[in-house]
Amino acid sequence: MNVPNSLSLTRLAAVPLLVLAYLLPFEWSGYLAAGIFALASLTDLLDGYLARKLDQESSLGAFLDPVADKVLNCTALVLLIGGYSTLMMTLPGVIIIGREVLVSALREWMAEMNRRGIVRVTLLGKVKTGMQMLAIIILLCAEPRFEAPLTLIGYGLLVLSVVFTLWSLLQYLRAAWPTLVSCPINKCGSE
Question: pLDDT tens across 45-81, in order?
């Protein structure tokens, strides 16, 4: 266990706290949830940086980091979908969660085919994640009604992150497509 892996575990541990904070029956509970989400999101920036800087990259970290990211972000999106209870929030949330599942499955499958490097994280994926995290922080703080200015700002960022989400998904699929259509299971890995 090293510092970067501890940060990833901290991000996972923040998930139940995020849920509890968001569901508290107080006016300020959204701010508390946004603070927890923001701090947990900062650990995402730190763990990768520290792993490289301290030469502490590990297989456990390579597994924990994306899992912690996806669990944290998907949980926050589910909370927002429930809190807003509208198609306008549900549709972007489902698109983002669906993309996360699809890309995770694609990366797992490509690793099985010994082609993991084809679907590694891109700059576009990082921009998408940053924009998505900012949108979530704003929406957790905002009143769950679309007339509120803060909600409109957060929602605008969320919709923009959906555009980046779909764009990055297309990039991953395009990179993986030749392997997806040409390699029978258990054949590509032996090349």
Answer: 898 888 888 888 888 888 888 899 999 999 999 999 9
132-144, pLDDT tens digit by residue?
Answer: 999 999 999 998 8
What is the token pair recorded at 57? 């990259």
CA dist., res. 140 & res. 130, Å (int): 15
Number of structural domains, the chain? Answer: 1
Tell me the per-residue pLDDT of 23-42, one tens digit each, with 9 for 90 and over.
Answer: 999 999 999 999 999 999 99
Joined together, the tokens standing for residue 160 give 């923009």
8 A C-beta contact, residue 140 and residue 34: yes
Is residue 7 within 8 A of residue 43, CB to CB? The reply is: yes
Tell me if 191 is assigned to some domain.
Answer: no
Task: Report the CATH number that the domain containing residue 126 is assigned in CATH.
Answer: 1.20.120.1760
Of residues 174, 131, 138, 171, the one with CA closest to residue 154: 138
**Which pTM was predicted?**
0.89
Say if 187 falls within a structural domain: no
190, part of any domain: no
What single string gives the DSSP state of each residue in 154-177?
HHHHHHHHHHHHHHHHHHHHHHHH
Q: What is the C-alpha separation between 169 and 100, in angstroms, rounded?
A: 9
C-alpha separations of 155 from 134, 161, 168, 188 in Å: 10, 10, 20, 42
